[in-house]
């Protein structure tokens, strides 16, 4: 009988990143005495409040978030949900969960956010755990991150077609009771020009934010030009000054075909009187002042010549 209980618990925990809640163990058939004995002999280890892992089982990276979800009875949310959806690369060391009405979660291992508004349509499943949807995640995210961080998450979600601009606009203008991050989402959407396409990488978004901090005009995103019978798409541009701004991330501009294509594009633009400025991850992140100075010099030069 004990072996059958252990197998049932192993199957259950396998679907929950190696974890199970005390109540789940009892529902399988373990008694309170059996639970106490296994904790005492350390064949089970407590990971969070009443959440256990069988000794010797793997600890995947999703386990802390799963532990907080099981301990709270809530759903992964805020920065944790954003990371699960691929909208943020970095998360806090403490997983965040949204705790529905009538529940509470206080643990040094996780961060619980209370809400009075969590309808079923705001919850999905990611990596085997209940998680706020992309749209709900973005409306909540503004409460715990900066405007710049939220903009990067919004642009990534739009680029991935995980949400539409119409959905974001509706969420940002709807009743925001219980969701204080909505005001920041409105500010982010206000930064986007009408019909502006999403940036295609986090590096592009960071570059756009750098232009704003420098007081430069908002450039045209993904601007298409036809030169010498070829259609080119520029990351950013100031068409009136014929300035092309290219952001060179390693993913798309290192080695292979890019080694041949990038110089050909650059030559074609130069031959048609476009000033091409290219910026790498290193320069955007580590030399922002120099980047800004170069941009202002380019704008000043083109303004003087009346381009």
Describe this structure in words.
With 307 residues, the chain is an alpha+beta fold. The protein contains 14 helices and 12 strands. The protein has helices at 2-14, 22-28, 32-40, 63-72, 78-84, 134-141, 147-159, 165-173, 182-190, 202-213, 250-253, 256-271, 281-286, 288-304; strands at residues 19-21, 44-48, 51-54, 75-76, 96-99, 111-114, 123-126, 129-132, 220-227, 230-238, 243-248, 275-280. Strands 9-10-11-12 form a 4-stranded mixed β-sheet, sandwiched between helices. It has a 3-stranded antiparallel β-sheet with strand order 1-3-2. The protein has a 3-stranded mixed β-sheet with strand order 4-5-6. Helix 8 packs across helix 9. It is elongated, with a radius of gyration of 25 Å. The termini are far apart.
Topology readout:
Layout: H1 2-14, E1 19-21, H2 22-28, H3 32-40, E2 44-48, E3 51-54, H4 63-72, E4 75-76, H5 78-84, E5 96-99, E6 111-114, E7 123-126, E8 129-132, H6 134-141, H7 147-159, H8 165-173, H9 182-190, H10 202-213, E9 220-227, E10 230-238, E11 243-248, H11 250-253, H12 256-271, E12 275-280, H13 281-286, H14 288-304
Parallel strand pairs: 5-6, 11-12
Antiparallel strand pairs: 1-3, 2-3, 4-5, 7-8, 9-10, 10-11
């Amino acid at each position: 009988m004990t072996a059958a209980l252990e197998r049932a618990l192993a199957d259950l925990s396998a679907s929950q990143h190696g974890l199970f809640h005390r109540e789940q163990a009892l529902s399988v058939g373990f008694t309170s005495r059996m639970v106490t004995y296994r904790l005492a002999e350390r064949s089970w280890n407590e990971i969070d409040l009443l959440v256990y892992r069988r000794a010797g089982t793997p600890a995947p990276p999703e386990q802390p978030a799963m532990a907080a979800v099981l301990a709270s009875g809530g759903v992964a949310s805020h920065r944790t949900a954003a990371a699960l959806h691929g909208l943020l690369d970095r998360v806090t060391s403490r997983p965040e969960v949204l705790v529905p009405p009538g529940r509470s979660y206080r643990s040094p291992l996780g961060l619980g956010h209370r809400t009075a508004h969590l309808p079923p349509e705001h919850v999905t499943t990611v990596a085997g755990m209940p998680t706020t949807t992309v749209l709900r995640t973005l409306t909540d995210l503004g409460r715990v991150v900066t405007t710049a961080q939220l903009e990067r998450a919004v642009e990534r979600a739009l680029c991935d077609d995980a949400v539409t601009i119409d959905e974001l606009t509706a969420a940002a203008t709807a009743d925001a009771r219980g969701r204080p991050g909505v005001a920041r989402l409105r500010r982010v959407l206000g930064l986007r020009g009408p019909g502006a396409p999403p940036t295609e990488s986090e590096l592009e978004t960071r570059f756009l934010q750098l232009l704003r901090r420098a007081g430069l005009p908002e450039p045209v995103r993904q601007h298409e030009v036809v030169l010498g019978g070829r259609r080119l798409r520029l990351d950013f541009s100031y068409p009136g000054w014929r300035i092309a701004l290219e952001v060179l991330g390693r993913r798309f501009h290192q080695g292979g075909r890019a080694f041949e294509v990038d110089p050909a594009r650059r030559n074609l633009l130069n031959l048609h009187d476009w000033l091409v400025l290219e910026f790498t991850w290193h320069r955007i992140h580590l030399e922002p002042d120099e980047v800004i100075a170069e941009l202002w010099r380019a704008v000043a030069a083109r303004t003087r010549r009346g381009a």
